[in-house]
Amino acid sequence: MNRYFFDHVISFYIFDLMNGLQHGHAPSRCCGCGTYFLTTNGHMPKYCDGIAPQDPRMTCRQYGAMMRQKEQNKQHPVYRLFTTRTNTIRKHHQRGKISDELRNEALYVAESLRDKALMDNDYAASGYAHDMEQEAIYAQARARLAREDGS
Ligand SMILES: [Zn+2]
Q1: Pick from 10, 36, 80, 147: CA 20 to 30 A from residue 69's CA?
Q2: Could you tell me if 34 and 48 are in contact, meaning their C-beta atoms sit under 8 angstroms apart?
Q3: To 5 degrees, how large is the angle CA 56–CA 60–CA 64?
Q4: Which residues lie below 8 Å from residue 66, measured CB to CB, with a gap of 6+?
Q5: What is the spatial distance between Cα 111 and Cα 142, in angstroms, rounded to a whole number?
Q6: Phi, psi angles (nearest 5°) of residue 32
Q7: What pLDDT is recorded for position 138?
Q8: Global pTM value
Q9: Nearest Cα residue to 93 out of 102, 84, 85, 82
Q10: How many H-runs (helices) and E-runs (strands) does the chain carry?
Q11: CA of 23 relative to ligand 1 center, distance in Å
């Protein structure tokens, strides 16, 4: 077994790096946290496996995958319409135009329609845009609230 002594902690990191390079590892910089880490041959991940500084519940790799998915989702027409509507609902709520209850129900309705459209291409292509009209969402949300009051 080889034993090495280092007079400075930096020497250890340099040794570790050189040792890694010898074994076909290359240093790579994590796009999430900015730390350098060693990668194996032919494999250049953009993220390390450390805890993501943006969200300690996941690793940089998981966080990166989630952000990539979110970016793709934003481009999706179903999501675009959903984002537009929910932004308007929040704006209406901020201005006091709608109540807390109606805001919550409207957001719930919009989310349900979005999920339905994501799973059903026919619905996404035909009924979705109509159901997602601002007044249609509020009408559905009011109907849900009325039903809750009646029970
Ligand atoms: Zn990282």
Answers
A1: 36
A2: no
A3: 115
A4: 58
A5: 16
A6: -85, -60
A7: 98
A8: 0.58
A9: 102
A10: 7, 2
A11: 22
Ligand 1 centroid distance, CA of 36 (Å): 8
Separation of CA 39 and ligand 1 centre (Å) = 13
List the pLDDT tens digit at each of the 151 positions of the chain. Answer: 455 555 566 666 666 666 666 666 677 889 889 988 877 766 678 899 999 999 999 999 999 999 988 888 888 889 999 999 999 999 999 999 999 999 999 999 999 999 999 899 899 999 999 999 999 999 999 999 998 776 5
* Distance from the alpha carbon of residue 45 to the mean position of ligand 1, in angstroms: 10
CA–CA distances in Å: residue 100 to residues 23, 45, 93, 107, 145? 60, 44, 7, 11, 11
Q: Which among 107, 127, 108, 109 has a CA at the least distance from the CA of 117?
A: 127
Q: Give residue for tokens 């790799």.
A: 61
Measured distance CA(82)–CA(73) in Å, rounded = 11
d(CA 11, CA 118): 54
Instruction: Check if the beta carbon of residue 111 is closer than 8 Å to that of residue 93.
Output: no
Q: For the chain, which residues make up each domain, given as ranges?
A: 9-71, 76-146
